Amino acid sequence: MSGAIAHVVDDDAAIRDSLEWLLKSRGVAVRSWVSGEAFLDGLSATPRGCVILDIRMEGMSGIEVFDQLLARGFGLPVIFLTGHGEVQMAVGALKRGAFDFVEKPFNDNQLVDRVLEALRRDEVVHHERETEASVAARLARLSPREREVMDRVLAGEANKAIADALDIAVRTVEAHRARVFEKMEVHSAVELARLVGRRS
Amino acid sequence: MSSLLPLSFRPTNFGRPADPRDWQWYAPRAAVGLFVLALVGLLWVLHRQELEENHAAVIRDILWVEQSIRFSLDRDVEQLRQLGQEAPAGRDPRQLEVTVKHLLLNSPGLLEVALLNEHGVATASAPVPMTPGGRSWLGLDSEADYRLATVTGKAVYSAPTRSMEEEQFAVFVPYYRQGVLAGTVVGIYGLKAMLANLVPWWLAKKHRVTIQDSAGNLLAAKSNVEARGAPDLTHQVALDPPGHGLLLHVESYGSESRLLRYSLTATIVVLACILLWNLRLLRRHVQRRLATEQELRAEHAFRKSMEDSLHTGMRAVNMNGVIVYVNPAFCRMVGYTESELIGHAAPQVYWPPEERNHIEEVLRVARADGSSGKEIELKLMRGDGERFDALIYDSPLIDADGKQIGWMGSLLDITERKRARERVRQQEQKLAATARLVTMGEMASAIAHELNQPLSAIASYATGCLNVLQAGGASAAEFRDALEKTAQQAQRAGRIIRRVHEFVRKSEPVRTDVHINTVVQEVVSFAEAEARTRRVKIHSQLSTDDPELKADPLLLQEVLLNLLRNGMDAMAATPVEERELKVITERAGQTVTVTVRDRGCGLSPEVQAQLFDPFFTTKPEGMGMGLHICRSIMEVHRGRVWAEPNPGGGSAFSFCLPMAS
Question: How many whole angstroms separate alpha carbon B266 and alpha carbon B273?
């Protein structure tokens, strides 16, 4: 779980400190924030990990912080801590993509379990994003003609058919195809299809 | 009264109704006119007939007179001739005188008789003896008559001449012996005497009989009284003999019946006028009457429509409580028809059986007071048995003589109004309860949140410690830090609890000396209003020595009120006549016990077990705090509260308190 960090956002120092102690006892890296504003300000451009957000806070409420995260396009999983009478709000947030909510007083190890799950999901999401980014970068290197040839290869056309359709020599098609494989860092059409097809 | 009427209700044709039945008035007038005309006509005809009859009578009478004169004269002529024949010349004048006297007695109007010889020389006369040979009394104009008589041998009458204040005429009667004129007897007649003797009294009474000459000069008259009769009641005939244009004239005096007739006619006319006048008066009277009736009818119709359109029910009863009048609104209200209600005595059909005594009592009290317009609220019953609340204003019914003849009541159906009021009250109560709940909820939420923080922290520290222990390899210093923080959070939770406690302690009871009976009386009187609405009777049975305690009277009232309300709630399904709450205060040693007994549904064992738990309730809108608070209050006062079944059904709630020591 390298780079996985749990952001604890709560205005109550005791909660922050105790959660830090608890999470660390299960080997989770923790970073505490005294308020929603401090958390949003201190976030990196590509934040990682998960967020434990108290719903009732001085200043920005947990829901408002969640809205800000959504607006900035950060896909961090968020776990809400709710008190008496706040379940309704938490359910609303859940529908808009929050990871989970835990009612206070909570069963602490269950909370930690949910944090771990959230971190795992972040990991997966992050990996996917990275793959996506590299495919996009490779696709950007293709020339228009190479792109055309690749699309037809992905459609399952034979070299002869591609040559006829594009009105070029079969040999030329083969050359393009080799360059596509090279630029996309794959060795076969099947590999190419897996890489590009997932994206679409 | 009529000034209250709108203009449209006033008869506009007062005094001169354009009545098509006017002919009814003209017919009697015409009849009276015709009647008078007929009477006058009849009178006139009668008058004419009478006149004719009178005329005929006059003629008859005059002819009779004329005839009797003629008879008399003719007889005289015979007697005079006989006298002449029987009187030889030279006879004793005395004998003649006797004969003449006898003749004069029987011959009316004959005044004097003279004997003339064949040469026309007077030889004797009677009753006045004459100078023999003298004939001076014979007027020149009678000379011709004498000659005529002697020539013709018939009696000839002379024209009348005036002598000695009297018109006289003579008759020359020649007489013969052996066919030779032997002489002439002259009879002198006085016209006046003749009339006087020949016209009988009964005739003279009716008529004025006169003798006139042809020129109309009056020569003699039976009476000097002038007749003023109508000209058609005169008649004249020629008087012949003696002739010479003498006329016998008769004038009727006219009868007294004429005056009678005139007065009769006048009476008839006057009576007819009076009749017409009376008719006119009668007509005006009837017209006024009709107009008044019209006005009355309009007034009546107006009042009727007013009564009928009223929404307020009206009913009048006489002094015996018998209904004498109801308006349609009242009938609609109670659901009986007018005929079903009028004539009915109390108890009325619209009094619910269970309210009869109460209504009678209330009415009796209100009426005994005598003041009018008293507001009485009663529960009444419709024809279909439905009960409704009515507001009655009952006031004495006074007749025109100022005597009270009954009671007039106006009724308003206030069921809806009452229901609405009750609904509003319930809503307010619910709202207040909700508000209390909301406040309590918010407070509870705030406390929960406050407590959640340290509790969560403590739990996290503890779990963290356990995790570390399980993994092993943590230092004692690390544990101490976490445990110290845990202890701090526990203290924090404790502080929150203390704060809540302090907040609650601010409403600690204020203990003063209170008399338990006073508290009960105050609460009962306060609860009476609600009890009346729920038709519950509250009976108090108070301890005679009125024990005194040290307590917060407001809190005690709160407890008792709570128990009373619970009792009323419990009896919601109990029949009305059994709904009774009994409040008992007792003293046993140094303990005062207050018990509230109801006749409600009672308590099941499960309910009784949880009765005083907070938030436990059997009522749909209850909070479940009432009895819990009661118990808290009792604990504060070192007393206690409990429930047990009521021996007579229902349940009994009691609380006991130590007395002030």
Answer: 10
Would A188 be classed as within a structural domain?
A: yes
Q: What DSSP character marks residue B590?
A: T
* B250: β partners: B209, B235
> What domain count does chain B have?
4
Q: CATH number of the domain that A149 lies in? A: 1.10.10.10
Residues A12, B453: C-beta atoms closer than 8 Å: yes
Domain boundary among B233, B252, B271: B252
List residues bridging with B169 in a β-sheet: B189
Cβ contact B456–A17 (<8 Å): no
Nearest chain B residue to A56 by CA: give it.
Answer: B449
Residue of B444, B461, B467 lying closest to A26 (CB–CB): B467
Give the residue on B whose Cα is nearest the Cα of A81. B456
Please tell me if residue A22 touches chain B, with a CB cutoff of 8 Å: yes
pLDDT above 80: residue B210: yes
In a domain, B285, yes or no: no
* Residue B588 φ then ψ, to 5°: -130, 105
Asked whether this complex has an ipTM greater than 0.90, the answer is: no
- Kindly list the residues from chain B whose CB atom is less than 8 angstroms away from the CB atom of residue A101: none
Residue A129 in any domain: the answer is no
Identify the domain containing residue B86 by its residue range.
Answer: 49-252
3-state secondary structure of A103: strand
Closest residue in B to A54 (Cα–Cα): B453
Work out the widest C-alpha separation in chain B, in whole angstroms: 236
pLDDT at residue B214 is higher than 60: yes
Residues B334 and B428 in one domain: no
Which residue, A98, A124, A150, sits at the end of a domain?
Answer: A124
pLDDT at A130 over 90: no
**What total of structural domains would you count in chain A?**
2
pLDDT score of B154: 81
B460 to chain A, any CB pair closer than 8 A? The answer is: yes
On chain A, the residues whose CB falls within 8 A of the CB of B489 are 14, 18
Which residues 484-543 of chain B have a CB within 8 Å of chain A?
Answer: 485-486, 488-489, 492
Same structural domain, B534 and B479: no
- Whether A18 sits inside 8 A of B485 (CB atoms) is yes
Q: Which residue of B has its CA nearest to A19?
A: B460
Contact A84 B449 (CB under 8 A): yes
DSSP notation for B598-657? --SS---HHHHHHTTSTT--SSTT--S-HHHHHHHHHHHTT-EEEEEE-TTSSEEEEEEE
Mean of pLDDT values over A180-200: 78
The yes-or-no verdict on residue B53 having pLDDT over 90 is no
Above 50 in pLDDT, residue B157? yes
Q: How far apart are CA B122 and CA B132, in angstroms?
A: 6
